[in-house]
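Ureide permease
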Amino acid sequence: MFLVTDKASAIALMIVALWCLGSWPAFFNVLERRGRLPQHTYLDYAISLYFSACILALTFGEVGPSSASSPNFIDQLAQDNFPSVVFAMLGGLALCSGNISMQYSLALVGISLTEVVSASIAVVGGTTVNYFLDQGLNKASILFPGVGCFLFAVIIGSFCHASNEADTMAKFAHTTDDEVALSKGLLEGPPEGTRTDWSKRCRGWLRQGKSVLEQWRSRKTDVERDVNGKYAAVFDDKAPELPFMDETSSVAGSAAYLEHLEEVRAIKVRGHSVMLGLGVAFFTGACYALFSPLFNLATNDQFHLLEEGVPNLSVYATFFYFSTAFFLLSMVVQTYLLYHPMMGLPKSSLTAYLKDWKGRHLALLAGFVCAFGNVCQFMGGEAAGYAAASAVQALPLVGTLWGIVLFGEYHRSSRKTYTLLGGMLFMFMAAVVIIIASATERS
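Tokens:
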């Protein structure tokens, strides 16, 4: 089988895992904001993750000769390693529970805060447990200062989120109904049978970074107001839809955009307590803190539960059992939620899910990216310590980038918010560098 044993390769895998595991939640957020039911998205994601795990096991897990001390994936399926299988499947159940709760936390408090809270709890809890399971393999004098940086980052992140919430409330307080109607009308696109150079103008807006309302104020002649008080531009051909409702322009941070988003998204967040979202994010973090130590126990048998002479499970065999439990729980929970949805979501059915192809490719891609990221994380942990591999839980480094670029989560915020955001990201980067520096090759 393909294995990594040196420190440099392990660190490279951890960096790849960091990017993958920080990126796949963005696919979920895109689909939820486009109105796709989260149950449909998660079913596609779980199926993709499971099949990706099987493909990785049957390819990389079968590379090279098999031996008694290091059997390939197929050979390990017939071995008596039940205790390790149990730990692997418990890890899959923990990750699945965390991912399901993360979907709702993403909608309630956004991708940035969700990943800040959940990743910090996962790193503090998971790193500490893995350090003791690996019997101090990683250097404590380097490892735990890195964990301290994570704690400091989450404190800064909480102040950043509070400041951004205050900025959002200020936007609503100073926006008129006419401005909201205008911005919504332009976000939804112009009607057919009208005339103008809409495509060229949109590209110009994106390059200049100006909002729809700012452009309208400078070119009022391009906009007409009808008797109902709604606004529409004069166009000849149907305009191309802007990606993600024009979230790359500064209108993404406006009150009009937030109003429009609430109307089209699947999970309605208006009226739900922020504390509810934080509670869900904390539960997500607790689940994420458990799955890595359980995977560690499955691959290294620290409790000596296997019979003498039975080799430890390989990363690929462990990930196969891990993903099997993940897949089974996902199917049960998400099928139940189709018919008994939470948070005001509409009811669905298996038939409706099978017919829903809107955005399915993104959900399937999310499953593959997550599976590949997990394998990289576990291979890096097996080679250089699972405590050091916890650095890949610094998801806000990647998640916040996606939140800014795709979703405008901090767009048009105050200088105070940007200062706190910069401080938070700096502390996360410092934490990743320090924790990875504690990596030590496993003998």
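Residues 181-200, 202-251 have pLDDT under 50 and may be disordered.
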